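Aim 2 progress update. The chain analyzed this quarter is reproduced below.
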Amino acid sequence: MGPLKYITLVVFLLNMGLVGSQEPEAIPWNPQRKLEWNDFKGRPFKTAWAAAITASGISYSFTSVQEDGQLVLDITINSYFYPEESWYQPKLCDSLILSHEQLHFDIAALYARKMRKRIAETTFTKDVKAEVKEIYKDILRELGNFQKKYDFETNFSRNVQKQFEWNKEIEHALKNQ
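Predicted C-alpha cells:
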C-alpha cells in the first residue's frame, strides 16, 4: 500500500459566509453516531497525497435582545462533518484511519463545547456581534493548532500507540466537559 496508507488531512470549514443559497450537506456531531466510510462522498484529488480528508467545523448562530436593561443572548453552536468535502481512497484506508478521521470530528465537537463555555462566561457589550465573532475566531485558531498537534503526534495515525492514547484522551474530555 505504500507510504500513503496513513496520511490524512483535516479541513476546517467556516460555516459562515458560504456562497450560494444551497447549504452543503452536513452531519451534526452526535456521540452515538460514528462516521462510516460511506459518509465520505467527495472525490479524491487526482494528485492526492492523503489517504483521507475529513472536512469538519464549527458553526454558530445567535440573536440578542435587551430585556430590562440586560443583554440576552440566544446562541446555537454546533460541530458538523461535511460529506461532500470529505473523501477517502478505499485501497489505502482501514479501520484505524477511520478512527483517526472520527477523532478529528470529535475534536471539533470538543472545541464547540469550549466555545459554548467561553460564551457563557463572557459579559457582552452592545458590540456583541463583533465579540462573538472574535471568540469564534479564537476557538477556530485553537482548534486548528490542536488538530495539527494531533496529526503530528500520531504521525497521521501511523503511530498506533499514540493514536490509541489520543483516542482515550479525547473520549475522556468529551465525557467530562
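The radius of gyration is 18 Å. The chain is about 40% helix and 20% strand. These observations will guide the mutagenesis experiments scheduled for the next reporting period.
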